[in-house]
Amino acid sequence: MNVNEIITEVSASLQRIGGIGQVFLVACGGSLVDMYPAKYFLESEAAALQVGMYTANEFVCATPKILGANSLVIVCSHGGDTPESVAAAKLARERRAVTVTLTHNDRAQLIEHADHNILYAWGNDTNVIDNPMAIILSLCVETLRQVEGFAGYQDFQQGLRQINGVIAAGRRQVAGRCADFARRFKDESLFYILSSGASYGHAYGFAICSLMEMQRVNASAIHSGEYFHGPFEVTDGETPFILMMNEGRTRVMDERALTFLEQYAGKVEVIDARELGIGALPPSVVEFFNPVLFYSIMCEYRAALADIRHHPLETRRYMGQVAY
Amino acid sequence: MNVNEIITEVSASLQRIGGIGQVFLVACGGSLVDMYPAKYFLESEAAALQVGMYTANEFVCATPKILGANSLVIVCSHGGDTPESVAAAKLARERRAVTVTLTHNDRAQLIEHADHNILYAWGNDTNVIDNPMAIILSLCVETLRQVEGFAGYQDFQQGLRQINGVIAAGRRQVAGRCADFARRFKDESLFYILSSGASYGHAYGFAICSLMEMQRVNASAIHSGEYFHGPFEVTDGETPFILMMNEGRTRVMDERALTFLEQYAGKVEVIDARELGIGALPPSVVEFFNPVLFYSIMCEYRAALADIRHHPLETRRYMGQVAY
């Protein structure tokens, strides 16, 4: 079943008891990052429909009282066996919520606790609309449309048709920059990643997954709007900042950060969604697609960094290597 | 008017149109940190009542569609003139929402956009229940009680009566540790701050305010539950970690992080709310008070660090010093 069919069936099954009242987005690490754009979308666009986003273990330890038969719980795990995520889906079912799971592993334990499971595509050669970030966003857009309507629905569908092409062109556009970035930043031990709006989650994701986990390099995400309320005091000539500039309503915050960084920071790398052509998407929904673009573009940056540092992206010293 | 009277008046004024439907918590930096426990509380305990937390500039740039006459918008700014926060309160009023503002400055611009303003007490010699974190939490507890009821209400009131005493004893208990911490960590250039549940916001707050802003030291907050999904790969013998261990439902996540840190991290400072006596509070609400305790305790830690580093907590190079 596709996204539309899944949500249609979920809505129908809950019709008798008032339909979908809450959407819970539950996962860990990189998979949780893939849920942030959907959280941002619903917080911005929804009226009655509630949304909550949780790292799976917290969802299990401190379960929202409202979790129940009117809840749609979306759980994502790439390998599909992350214990906290499996436990979250199991708990959701026990509380009579409807679960939609996403995984890349068709034998995942997660699927045992799914009312609907989506086996997603993965890798640079896939269409990003078949990857978890876009699928989860689509699930929430479809849910909003069916629960209370969403005026930007057709524009969003057009965005889905356009984004992969924007990304393909963007990848070619940054190829040279990635190599240059890797040369300039290969010996850095700490990076700050800035962004805003729908992309803040990916600033966090690039920090904890691409740098901390995959490169064993210190990193921290800062919201472009929060930067001026404390964090900017560490800005200097030596500390590297990566700024992902959004197209859309929150761009003004990214631009303000850029102006400050250009004056006071010595090492800045800017990835600008507008310059990379995302403006081709409908204005009413373009902001929700910024992180989809950034994810693919930043994969090029991290690959170049991994290559020049001779630290393969798969290298781990703890994850899957020791007991924890 | 006290918290109870304010919410009673707000509820009464919205009776005719269905009462309070959403609570928006809006501020910047340290004031936003003070709102996190209230966000965590409502996300955990509320059924129909919705909650959203926003850095003020994002609230203004990407205003939630639902913001309107049924919205209670709580805005906090210590100096009361933070442009983004003043703009957020102004916008909320324009959208016919009810605003409750908190500030320490009785001549603050913020007050011009307040339906109700709370002038709060500040400083080590004040009772923490008169400080913004506890006041904002109380406003949300009172709102939940009046909108849909809260079974733990009496326990929460008891917690408010007890927490200041727990903190006073805790301060004495850690005095020696703070001096020792400062000696051991005075030359560190990067700290990771871990916590979970209601205290995650304060892990972020200690990182961006106490360390980045007030000490010009690099720092990053990590959720204890997320630590194992990427961040822990940077754990080594040299990188300092500060773990704030909660009493209550999410403690299990903090304990798991502690077990790992004790085995693989060389530099760890643990602040344990249970050991500091917070268990004296009613079990049904104790978790919501962890960050109130941690805030006061961590003020002792940062003061010791500022002292030994000869870097006064008031020192700024950008904030209020340059244009941005």
Automatic annotation (TrEMBL), chains A, B:
Stored Pfam families: SIS
Family annotation (SUPFAM superfamilies): SIS domain (SSF53697)
Source taxon at top rank: Bacteria
Signal peptide: none
A GO MF label: carbohydrate derivative binding
CDD domains named in the record: SIS_1, SIS_GlmS_GlmD_2
Domain SIS: 10-150
InterPro entries: FrlB_SIS, Fructosamine_deglycase_FrlB, GlmS/FrlB_SIS, SIS_dom, SIS_dom_sf
Protein's GO biological process: fructose 6-phosphate metabolic process; protein N-linked glycosylation; UDP-N-acetylglucosamine metabolic process
Chain segments annotated as transmembrane: none
Protein name according to UniProt: SIS domain-containing protein
